C-alpha cells in the first residue's frame, strides 16, 4: 500500500461563499488526496452546483448529498455529516484521514508537510497547522495551543483515529479527541509554520446565530468536556482580548456557568475527565508546553498502535448510532434550531 494515501472528508452546508477557495487550495496541493469525499448536508445556497462542477473535473473528488434537516447544526451536526461520509469509506485502504472544513485556504504544501511530520514521529497521532483570520489585509493568529490539532482541519494517522473511537458527537469534540489520543500514548500537535499556516475565512467561535452565541456554546462545551471552573476562568480571561473584546470571554464563561447551574450532561468517560483535569492543573502551574511533555511521558507506556479492536467497536457503534438518528430525523417534521 502507498504509505502516503490519505482520505479527506468534508462536511458542509451553505458554504458557497467560501468553498471555492478551499476547493482550489486542495486541488492544487503538492500531494493531493487519494479520495476527497464532500458531504453536502442539505445546502440551499448554490453549494451543490459548485461541488458538482468540481466533481466533474477531478476524479478524486466525490460528493455525497444528505437530506435538508431545515437548519444548520454546528458541532454534533458536523460530526453527523462526517460519519455519514465515513460509513462509505474503507479506512483500511488509507494511512491517514482528515476532517476538513470548507471555509479554509490552505498552502499548497499543507498535506505533504503534515505527512512528513507523521513519518518523522511514529507517536504523532493528529496534527495541523495554525489558523489565521484576515483583518484589514493582515493575517491575525487565532492563537491556538500547540498541544492540539485544530478542529477545522483534523489530520489523523488512521490507527490513532480508530483507537480513540473517532469523534464524539458533542460540542468540544475537537478537544476531547486530542486529550483521548494523549491518554492512549499518542502525541497531538499544531505548528505555526509558513508551510502549514492557513486562512480561516470564518471568524473563530462564530455561529449561525452570531459570535456571542458561538462563544457561549464553547463554554457549554468546556463544561461537557470536564473542564474545571478555575481553568475555565483563566481561559476566558485569555480570550477576553479577542473580538468581541471582553464580552466574548464573558460569553464563554456565561455558557459554562449556565451549563453548570442547569446540571447539564458531562463527559461520562471519568478516566478521561481525570486526565483532562490533571493536564489543565499542570498547565496552570507549569505552562502548556511543559504540561504536554509530562502528559506524553506519563502515558508513553500505553502507546500500542496495533491495539485497535476496542476502538473499532466504539467507532462502528458511533457510525451506527448516527445512521439510526438520520432515519429518525427524516421521519420528523423539520423545525428551526435556536439557542446554543
Automatic annotation (TrEMBL):
Domain of life from the UniProt record: Bacteria
UniProt-listed InterPro entries: Glyco_trans_2-like, Nucleotide-diphossugar_trans
Phylogenetic classification of the source organism: Bacteria, Pseudomonadati, Pseudomonadota, Gammaproteobacteria, Cellvibrionales
MF terms (GO), sorted A to Z: hexosyltransferase activity
Organism of origin: Microbulbifer hydrolyticus
UniProt domain Glycosyltransferase 2-like: residue ranges: 8-150
TM segment ranges: 240-257
Protein name: Glycosyltransferase
Family matches, as PANTHER family: GLYCOSYLTRANSFERASE
